[in-house]
Amino acid sequence: MNRGNDINPFEEEVPEVNPFANGSTAPASKSRIPKMFANTLGFGQKHDATVDIPLDSMNKKEKDLANWEAELKRKEKEIKNREDALSRAGVPVNDKNWPPFFPIIHHDIANEIPAHSQRMQYLAFASWLGIILCLTFNIIAVVVCWIKGGGVKIFFLAVIYALLGCPLSYVLWYRPLYYAMRTDSALKFGWFFMFYMLHVGFCIFAAIAPPIVFHGKSLTGILAAIDVFSDHVLVGVFYLIGFGLFCLESLLSLTVLQKVYMHFRGHR
Fold first, then answer.
1. CB 216 within 8 A of CB 224
2. Region labeled Disordered — which residues (predicted)?
3. Could you tell me where the beta strands, DSSP code E, fall in the chain?
4. 43: which DSSP letter?
5. Alpha-carbon distance 141 to 6, whole Å?
6. For the whole model, what pTM was predicted?
7. Which of 234, 230, 203, 195 is nearest to 219 (CA)?
8. Angle formed by the axes of helices 118-145 and 186-208, to 10°?
């Protein structure tokens, strides 16, 4: 019998499972996955400790911060150079020009505040004039109450509120905001926010006028108006007007606070 032509089943299996034939491709196919992950994750590279995406984002933020700081320094330098030039020319830089009939402060929004911030500065100016109006009318209403038998103590308290509130509101929050808009100073903005929130709190408190801390009828709030209305209708009308003024001032102040905050966040 000639067994040379017989098909050996074991010989047919050899090419398919030959470790020498498939061994060269199998490890290669399996090695692609670790290599692919290594390339993706950055391992096995020459500079495998460098992470490109976070560093790029950090570098971008640092560039933006550096550009903003350079722009701020440039503005401050321009303002200083302009003020120095005006001083050398004999022109007073911060001359008192407001109010026109009796100048006591320097105020020039149209020429010193950037055009895109002038409307917001005018709103803040209206808020400052509003608190002066509220405190002045508060004295008038309290004088009417005093004449009708309310007592002299509330009159002196109302005068103290006005004498302290008018100048302190300018010094503590309006002037810092004016200079913050003028020079884009973060410190001035922070000073403004701190004291302007106290201003808003006082306006809301005065609109309610609870009989605590302050003498109840020394502020023309709603509770004081209800209290005096039963005794004297005329006094109650004055107190209701004062209540309305403090409400309007509170709403205007909240609007100014929101706009200034959005302006501050937008420039940072």
1. yes
2. 1-31
3. none
4. T
5. 125
6. 0.69
7. 203
8. 30
